[in-house]
Design brief:
Number of strands: 10
Helix content: 25-40%
Low-confidence stretches: none
Strand content: 15-25%
Number of helices: 9
Number of domains: 2
Structural class: alpha/beta
Oligomer: single chain
CATH architecture of the largest domain: 2-Layer Sandwich
């Protein structure tokens, strides 16, 4: 069974014009890499005002070097989609994988609609690697790892970004490149780590909205010179008078 792992980089979240697309086609049985490609989308790349709005616009020299070294190729978006569709047909790709796939799916839907071209994923199911991670990697050891390294979300839950998961599995000093092909590489490694734990290729597993952190914490309140301590695991702040409820 052949699969594709892919990633995109875009100018924004709301209007995600893509400037970088990377993917690798893999024989899921032998884990042999059959195809690896990286493209820079010409329409966004050459629109300097638009490209400058990208969160990772400062990585532009990386793409310049990659194109000079023939490791990435500047092509029009529609042509990129045609190459992808041809590869998917030639290698009989059955499933597509991405980390936080709803975003990447939105990217292709948005750009294919904008540029009026064929979407190469129209006939291939896209599966979110996060579902595999949440079902097969998030255990007490993972949570202890996050506690030790303070890997939490802004809301205080456990981080399950690709970068955090890769650090847990392979290298705690790892820093995600945030370029499409490099990120596809690490996402494929994460996927197969899940397969080693029991995930089945082609099966879509549920994605949790967040992985709650339930480590008890203590609130101390001093009233009339007396300290009162309360243990709690969740804090809720209401809009009415900013009252705090602990549970």
């Amino acid at each position: 069974m052949n699969i594709v792992v892919f990633d995109t980089e875009t100018t924004s979240l709301e209007k995600p014009f893509t400037y970088n697309i990377g993917y690798k086609i893999i024989d899921a049985n032998t884990r042999t890499e059959l195809v690896r490609r990286e493209f820079v989308a010409e329409q966004t790349w050459k629109n300097l005002a638009l490209f400058s709005t990208a969160y990772y616009a400062d990585k532009r020299p990386i793409y310049v070097n990659a194109m000079r070294g023939k490791k990435a190729f500047l092509e029009k978006y529609g042509y990129i989609c045609r190459i992808m569709a041809k590869d998917f047909r030639q290698y009989k790709v059955e499933y597509a994988y991405a980390y936080n796939s709803p975003f990447d799916e939105k990217v292709f839907d948005y750009n294919c609609d904008w540029f009026k071209c064929y979407n190469p994923f129209d006939s291939i199911p896209i599966i979110d690697i996060r579902g595999c991670v949440h079902s097969f990697l998030i255990d007490n050891d993972y949570k202890e790892f996050c506690e030790e390294n303070k890997y939490f979300t802004q809301s205080g839950n456990y981080s399950t970004t690709a970068e955090t998961v890769y650090r847990y599995l392979f290298d705690n000093n790892f820093v995600e490149a945030h370029t499409a092909l490099a990120d596809s590489d690490i996402e494929a490694e994460i996927l197969f780590a899940c397969v080693d734990k029991g995930a089945v290729v082609g099966v879509s597993y549920p994605v949790m909205q967040s992985v709650s952190r339930t480590v008890p914490r203590t609130l101390e309140v001093v009233k009339d010179g007396v300290t009162h301590s309360f243990d709690y695991t969740k804090k809720i702040v209401t809009k009415e008078g900013n009252k705090i409820f602990l549970s």
